[in-house]
Amino acid sequence: MSKCEQCIARQLNSMRSMTKEELKQVSDSKTSLGYKRGDIIFDEGELLNGVYCIRSGVCKLVKLNSNGKDQTVKLLGKGELIGQRSIISEERTNLSAVALNDVELCYVPKDQILNSLHVNKDFSFDVLQHLAQNLRQAEDDLIDMAQKSVKQRLAETIITLKNDFGVANDGSINVVLTRDDYASIIGTATESVIRILSQFKKEGLISTSGKSIKIMDLERLKRIE
Description:
- The chain is of the alpha+beta class.
- The protein is built from eight helices and ten strands.
- It has helices spanning 20-29, 84-89, 110-119, 121-147, 150-165, 179-186, 190-202, 218-222, and strands at residues 31-35, 40-42, 50-56, 59-64, 70-76, 81-82, 96-99, 103-109, 206-209, 212-215.
């Protein structure tokens, strides 16, 4: 089991502001967990007793809508923390967390996080900034859903995935999503995603190989209307 003090993933989240002693306490108390694609990490409405740090892989946060379908709210990759808002607010989870592919997580008991929040102002401020950024992103997503076309939202999602997760050696986006996943993220029907991706491909904006997508013309993709 790797030590938190030496973990690259923690440099990407609020735990980078913890002291060496706090990181040692976290390292001594954490549990390493593995999940396969589609496994539920926690369900909507659960009361969490800790937070999860993603060491590898990608997770998605989903919300069950009024039609009984899952709406993907956010994708989370290496270094992201899951569940910190719920343990800070002492509320049940508002979303479910699901493994999008094979993932490795570190589970940290909430006492370790709450203790640091009380005594470490740098860590507290870092957490606050992260929560504020999440709120801003949620506001931007609501505006996009109301003001942008389905084509624009799909183009922006593809670009965001490239920026957030990078590309493989062949240039394809590192995270591979199903057409259903894309539909869930942008709030449309799977058939619409398939049709628009086919249009993007014909126009030379992207290329596809199975479920993988490669951006061929980034500037034109940005200008989709």
